[in-house]
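Form 12-C: Joint structure prediction
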Amino acid sequence: MTISGLTSGAEYLRDAAQEFFNGMYGNPKMFLDEPLHKDLSWTPALRFTIHKQINIFVEVSETSPYPEVLSLKSNAVRNFQEPISIYSICPEDVKIAKKDVVKELELNGFGLITVDSNKQVELVFRAIPLIQIIPRSEFNSEIRGLSKIIRQRVSEAFVDYNDNPVNGVKSLTEILEGVVTSAWKQCLKKGYLENRRRNFGVATNLDTLYNNDRFQNIRGPIGGVRGYYGQYRHLSHHWPKNKKQAYKKYADCRHAFIDGIKQIQQFSTAIRSVGLSVRLH
Amino acid sequence: MTNVISSGKLENISPGNIFRNPENPRLIFRQDEMESLMVSIDANGILVPLTVYRENNDYILIDGERRLRCAKKLNLPSVPALIQDKPSELQNLLLMYNIHALREQWDYYTIASKLTRVIDLFRDDKGYEPNEIELSKSTGLTRGQIRRCRLLLDLPERFKDMLLEELQLPKSQQKLSEDFFIEMERALNAVVRRFPVYTENLESIRDTLVDKFRNGTIQAVTDFRQLSKIATAVDNLEVGREEVMSSLNEVFDGECDISIREAYDEAVGFGYTEREANLRVQSLTNFFDDVITSDMVRSLDEAFLENVRNLYKCLDRLFRNF
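Section 2 - Result
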């Protein structure tokens, strides 16, 4: 007689989740109460892999949509070298009774499914890999100080990011390009650059600005944007071959997105200091 | 029960090698308690060893299921455990009772089914069936708990299955609890003791009561106490048998949506309230006698006297209506 789950009603919820995900992902190989790895200090109620690269964990919870183990182990999951998305499954009436907790669960990137008294399962919201997650509070803190129009555009990119991190980084890089191009055009108009120097592309333009003595005091931010642009402009859309590559890709995207906001912030401050304005077209 | 466990050897064992005790009643673990324990174990480890016995290459749990569940959830590589000698079947069963009776995690149904086995093994061992006192002494259950278990044991199989199915659901989705069946059986016992005519329809009566509970006609499991009071009204209130049976028939009729509370209020509610009032009047009369006899009238509180004057006026109005 094996022991499964933390509480006595766990199996009922776990079985409902299993049936639901079997239907959703076409019967992937499911592991019940089996740890993923000896170094990860958590045994989810149910786990399986999708697209050969993302681990899906499901944890059951009878009395709260947000089981304690999710908070307890989120750092361990984030630091584990494979992408892991986590769902909580709880009775529907528990979800209805604890709306604040449900919101918190969603903001932290966890997914939620519920089971009603007729054993009907409903997907409330999807989980995203924990390594990809940028908490809303962190995002809000990063965009503080940006102009209204840039904040709006960055927020749109954040929506893209939560849906698909590569697309999100791409959207953010485009915003950065827009800010650089705007600065470049202002420089041409103000006669800071030779007129024959037309628009050669963002990388070349940044190099030109960097080497222009007029901007020697803001070489740091210009160099930062140049380095960022070189590293993340063509963030690969290629499908990772394994879980490790997938983890690295998600981690890179997360870093690229946060770093991208910082670059926009620093570059904007820098060009303002030399009499240029921050515009987006 | 003494000398069952000899002093054990302490070892670190992989949680994957430890299995539930087959005699262990199904326990109810509350999520908040389990999560507190899990957080504590995550921070400090397992401070009190589990107790197990060896079975071939594996270990069977005697005590520490909550710690083991937490250890598994936290994917701990090993847990400290005291390894004891393998107990006999009866010793093992009694150990389970005595360990868990102290912690009030009872799932009555499973405990009740194990109780039958205890009685069988006790009979084999001692040559006679244990009485309630002996059962209580050896299992650690109170006599009240044993009686409650017996009510569940006496249920027809169909209803036991119904209950078992219900117990698999998360707590918030359980409608038919063990308490429901225990309260219902107590009430039905009270009914058939006075009205044996219902014995042959007991199965369909149970079905009706289950349906009425599920659809909310019977609102609470405690309503069954009022059903008992309707039946016992023939003794306690000297209500006519026909009148009582008429009320019971309405409750037991699936086509009639009358609740126990309504039937109670209609048939015997006033009678029981009057009976209770009568006891209070007797008690008050005795008090007044004592006050007068011991010459304590002047010591009575003014607020109390005001209430007594109001009572006097009320009694005056009452007697004028005769």
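Section 3 - Comments
Strands of chain B lie at 9-13, 18-19, 50-55, 58-63, 79-84. Residues 237 and 272 of chain B are 7 Å apart (CA to CA).
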